[in-house]
Design a protein that fits this description.
By secondary structure, the chain is α/β, with parallel strands linked by helices. The protein has 9 helices and 14 strands. The structure holds 4'-deoxy-4'-aminopyridoxal-5'-phosphate. The site of 4'-deoxy-4'-aminopyridoxal-5'-phosphate has 11 residues, from helix 3.
Amino acid sequence: MKHNFNAGPSILPKEVFEEASRAILNFNNTGLSILEIGHRTPLFQAVMDEAISLTKELMQLDDDHSVLFLHGGATTQFFQVPMNLLNENETAAYLDCGVWGSKAIKEAKLFGQVNVVATSKDKSYTYIPKDYTVPSDAKYFHYTTNNTIEGTEMLEIPETNVPLIADMSSDILSHVVDFNRFALIYAGAQKNIGAAGVNLVVLRKDILGKVNRKLPGMMDYRQHIEAGSMLNTPPTFGLYFAGLVFKWLKARGGLTAIGERNRAKAEALYGYIDSSGFYRNPVSKDARSWMNVPFTLAKPDLDKTFLTEANAAGLTNLEGHRSVGGMRASIYNAMPIEGVQALIGFMKDFQRRHG
Ligand code: PMP
């Protein structure tokens, strides 16, 4: 039995892998593979409609919000957002809390003015700044809800009266959030949604159509909304797979239930790390992520041994991001509590033998 702690592409539900593999050979008893069905057929339209309606249901979205499934990963959203929303002479506010947020800032500067209202770079992004104000004339305020690399998460929505925009790539659908408070949300699929290559974008139409630059069709949210995410061939298999993951999540009690499970997993792991006297999590306690848990060993020269032994014990992909070092356990929705318990058991044993 393997437990995969990779940050992304990451662990996904086994039941979904099984159903998707059947659909690759024979989708819904059509005698056709899901991979060879035309995207403009009623068969595929039903897949798209279901993925959209499950997204709306799980996120409890109101009618002002549209759901899009686009290509290009979250990295495309780093520039598609300012391209659609920010004129050259206007200012957008950004919070800089990690590698991904700072990449979004860099891209936004290509299109308009950027006001970085706060940064935690001074302490290697190990905390979330609290004392900052978002100017009321900012076009929007952008932040990253979960910093995948550094292991911080903002579980509370910041107070502001300007349109809120969030990169939720690594904690989307992991707990209850009032998603309707956001003007735009985006998330790459490869953590809690499914296969890499699909990008979920949820947005309020009233923020669109206000920039004076010309937009290529594929970059224009309004055209995607009009075309129902079928401006061109959508990532069909990824969409089908996302629909299965959404059904899996719904059958397990939706965001309330998964949020409780994610909290329990995170509390167990942080609780053990804090009490161990051997492992250490570098993140400020009030900013700890429920999804990505970085930790270091008291003896860094044991890092390689830890990884080799963990791997042999079926605990894979625990190596920290190259920019941070140490270890990182990503414990997304599909990671069962048993996986976290197995990791804790291994860590205890490792400490006993090497500590
Ligand atoms: N934002 C966050 C928070 C991420 O974790 C990642 C990828 N790990 C990205 C953006 C970039 O996503 P993509 O590779 O899909 O462009």
